Batch of 4 targets.
Target 1
Amino acid sequence: MYTLHTGHVVTPLTGVDDLLDLPGGGVVVDRSDGTVEAVGKASDLRKAYPDATVADHGDRLIVPGFVDCHVHYPQLGMIASPGEELLDWLDRYTFPAEARFADEAWAQTRARLFTDQLIAHGVTTACVFSTVHKGSADALFRAAHDRNLRIITGKTCMDRNAPDELLDTPDSAVADSLDLLERWHGVGRLEYAVSPRFAPTSSDAQLRALGELAAAHPDVVIQTHLAENLGECRWVAELFPDAADYTDVYDAAGLVRRRAVFGHAVHLSDRETGRLAEAHASLAHCPTSNSFLGSGLFPLHDTAFAGGDDLRIGLGSDVGAGTSLSPLTTAGEAYKVSRLLGSPLSVAELLRLSTLGGAEALGVADSVGSLEVGKDADLVVLDPASSPVLEQRAEQCTTTAELLFALMILGDDRAVSAVAVAGDTVDRAA
Ligand SMILES: [Zn+2]
């Protein structure tokens, strides 16, 4: 019934700034309910759980399953498409890729590939955009349920400024969202997210209809994009001349609240940051995407300071504008962005953003984000010897922080040697 994973345990802890850093540590997983039973010294846990199946990971790192707060599963096929800013990039690459998801068989194939790749990259919780097609969200829910991943998703809603084949209406967006919500929200580890793509592709009528839907279901997530790119911000000001600012467009529609997760938020005014904090909303910082599309540098420390504890911030890969599904790569890029801004993130901050911070941003920190007793047993084993350059660097690291940092700068999915998803181990070492 129990599996004891032994290795070098590193995890953030709820309510504590410092990481738990436990070489020679262990995590006991209760396979009967998929939760963490105990965390401590491996030698103590071997005595306390003599009948446990032991998975000895040597001196590899055992960290919590990673949390991706913002990613588009239909865009995996056009990751690394070059040379355009956001609005051109959407027209040229994204919309044609998303149009293919009208085909449900295609959606199912891509959903299986995407969820397998999440696990391969150590991601066990994610907030994900589908396409406008109800079948695309259905396919992702099914694939995630089969793998027992903690996935929050919903049908993307857009009723203007996109190709006709990708448009819904205010009424059909609500009807399709509600149907999916009723069938999937709360099933296993799945949750629904009301998902207007962003203000330029939703009419005010659609945003308000989705706000009413969200008001009727106060426990669901809301996800959208906010202030990613300056051209987009100017367009929103033209489309919504009565709004005080971009955030106010969503606020007026009832879409700014706790568990509303706004992707990017690179170009916010002080008023917007204050209002988002007041509403206990969340932000997803997507550094590889922001760099790739030239959208800007998200001032994480400034925003976190202005928002205080009421404004939660996690990391998002934002694939396909983002360039990697790997939370290690995303954390490494977040470091570089913070360095360019002159306010570098620490290794402890980066690991927290990738795990517990993201879980807090999504409102699921009671269940995931850290290796603590009673939480879902989502864990990732990281192998610092997974590539020759990383291995020789790791051999010269003298602290856990240096080792984790090297993994973030040099590591990717090759560094993920095993993953436990709600206690079930997926061995990657073969
Ligand atoms: Zn996005």
Target 2
Amino acid sequence: MLVNGKWTDNWQPVQAKDDQGRFIRQTSSFRNWITPDGSPGPTGSGGFKAEAGRYRLYVALICPWASRTLIARKLKGLENLIPVTVLNPVLTDQGWAFGGYPGADTDPLFGARHMHDLYTRADPTYTGRATVPALWDTKTNTMVSNESADIVRMFNTAFADLVPATPDLYPADLRDQIDALNDDIYGSLNNGVYKAGFASTQAAYEEAVAGVFATLDRLEDRLTGDYLFDRFTETDIRLFVTLIRFDAAYHGIFKTNRKRIADYPRLSAYMERVLRLPGVRDTVNLDHIKAGYYSIKALNPTGIVPVGPDHVTALLRSTL
Ligand SMILES: N[C@@H](CCC(=O)N[C@@H](CS)C(=O)NCC(=O)O)C(=O)O
């Protein structure tokens, strides 16, 4: 991670933990918003007006948080307005790196070698982890946001003068329910799988696994229609990014192996329904997902990447 703008070697992929051995995810620190007229958003400062080609999104395709911004970008028709740079899926001892892995890019703006170079460009005294996704402003050469939840919401509304506003991923009449279900899914499932994988005590692991499967069971019961609510929303994006990684990565490397998503009929059908929405399939790269998770040395010292699972490979082939 960066400390006062300097990369420190004691980088730990397991991030922080509490006194019970529970994994703790860092909170994001660039929280500005792109808005239609450049006025400030709910947090941070103003000056980030929606303009075609001005902003660039940095992602890793292994990362569910980055992937949710990619899905929002596709569904909102922002592909031609916001270019994307894909980092290598394998974390190095200097964090995310650019270029060299098939399907990954070099940095077109500065020729940076690592993601942390962009963080120190934006803030020479930055302290924290150099995470993806990150939304970069090429006009003022700074980072707009490194918080995917905010990025999804700004993509939903900020560019309304340039592209059609539909679908509305955060409709006003559902906001309270969306916020509540987001919190539920984030704590126990999106981040719950990481809590299981990075737990450093048996008790913390079992607590996390219980949360993961309680939530999956509840969602299986809930999914009587096509989506979590009566229409597609950002909560579906949040659930999808974890489901699509589950059988291929979390079930093995994070030991969330009581069941697979394939064992849940409704969740499986739902996952495929979302996968088939126009543009979503382009955001899923199984090779990056498997290579990325199975390269986490603390969990898999040999770095061997499993060959399967065949059902996920087949599904992704059939949706190409
Ligand atoms: N709050 C962030 C979390 C992003 C995050 O944790 N990204 C992970 C990859 S999935 C990362 O970049 N980790 C690298 C690190 O922690 O050094 C968001 O949702 O945008």
Target 3
Amino acid sequence: MKRNLDVPWSYTGENGPKYWHTLCEWYKEGAQFPYQSPIAIETSKTIAGNAKQRLTFSYQIEKFTEKEFKNTIHFVPFDCQSYVVFAGEKYGLTDIHYHLPSEHILDNQQAPLEIHLVHMRKDGTNLVVGVLCDIIPGILPEGPLKKAQRWDLKEHIEIFNPELFLPKEQRYFHYVGSLTTPPTKGPINWFVFKERHQISRAFLSQFQEEILKGNNRPLQDKKDRKIYFCE
Ligand SMILES: [Zn+2]
């Protein structure tokens, strides 16, 4: 399978979400996974999760660099020291990025922003944690910047504990879906936090505004999927 990362895609027009699966064979194959993301989650229609659905976070302070690709800003760790454990398996944190507005809808509410913390198991299987956020007015150094150990966008080096992107309450929904960007492959274990987090406008204003607008994939059919709620 040719994995051409240069096949352009976007959120509007002829390379938009409706046509992603037509842009190349790799995207076509990903789109064939029947349970796509994002979806609308309704708390009242979830199943109580148990220990099997639990996610354990082992995040620590580490060094990241920020890059612009795939229509958003990404923070990429140098050494991949932070990880989560799900079903007895370790998934290393490989990428943090944003979508404006949120991709997942919780109880009929779309949030202004959604953070994705992307993890990967040794065999390449992904696990994604989604955090819906409000954008609060605030000036520097409110929001994530306050706890950052080093924040240097000029040198492209940031040192922080990625837990600053997680809300305080560890209550989350778990379901199986897909990546929300091409090649939209699955299965991906998704964990979407119930509580909204807060990001300051000053934090976002550090990045070019035009790439952080409308980069959310439309809702996908939930079908008969089970959604667990762990609290
Ligand atoms: Zn994402």
Target 4
Amino acid sequence: MTHIVNTEQATAWNGPEGAHWAEQSGRDDAVNGELTMALLTAAEIGPRDHVVDIGCGTGESSRQAARYAAQGRVLGIDLSAVMLEHARAAVTAAGLPNVAFEQADAQVHPFADGQFDVAISQFGIMFFTEPVAGFRNIGRALRPGGRIAFLCPRDMAANAWYVAPLSALQTWRGSGGLPDSQMFSLADRGRLTEVLTGAGFVDVRPRPLDVPMGFGSSAGVAAEFYLGSGPVRSVLERSPELAPERARDILLDALRPYEGPDGVLIPGAHWLVTAGRP
Ligand SMILES: C[S@@+](CC[C@H](N)C(=O)[O-])C[C@H]1O[C@@H](n2cnc3c(N)ncnc32)[C@H](O)[C@@H]1O
């Protein structure tokens, strides 16, 4: 792996958080296909394009992008060895010869100048310690006239998939609002535009996209997902008085209102952002 500066993120995504996501990614009912399709449509990937997928995780968006870039190539970049292991296995199973993965920090990775036509990211680009530097590094890796398309969350308050279960736990603890999360670092439209233009991108277009997030077939499955996720584990670590069984019950109560015939779907408010390299 090349040099990393996002050490906290690397630790998190190489530890239980990465293992948790890798384990969950095999489940069809956890896939948010509508979001991936919206991202890839916005990216306008051509058949010969060379694409980089930033924070590709277990590689769902990389695999889908490879179908668009059938005579091109896709490189998925991620900090997490455990997630990339899953991504590589899935690419082999799908028989996609034009996808490769590299464990690297996209903020500082020494990509060759102009090596990609398109950069994409599905919720993998909000974690840079220095966002302008990170986006500048990605912009440098794009050819002149190349483009970026990515998804990131809008306001925390509008993302019930994050707020509803965590608030239920916080309320039980008698604790106030939710702590800030790096996940929402690009939620503010002005800030988002400032970061991208500061990094040299042009024609920056954030479009609001409201698509619910899927968390499995039932509230029970969703509660298990949340119990293993970073934000909930961090609440539990700070609350020794909250037994895991009690936490599961609290989560079940919070998640049942979102259970329906298509499983647990909880409102999500995202930005679908496109921008170009001049
Ligand atoms: C919320 S997950 C999204 C994963 C995947 N794109 C998906 O949609 O399932 C965020 C991912 O970004 C990766 N990530 C965070 N910061 C990164 C960085 N600086 N460079 C590369 N990957 C990073 C994490 O390792 C993690 O896999």
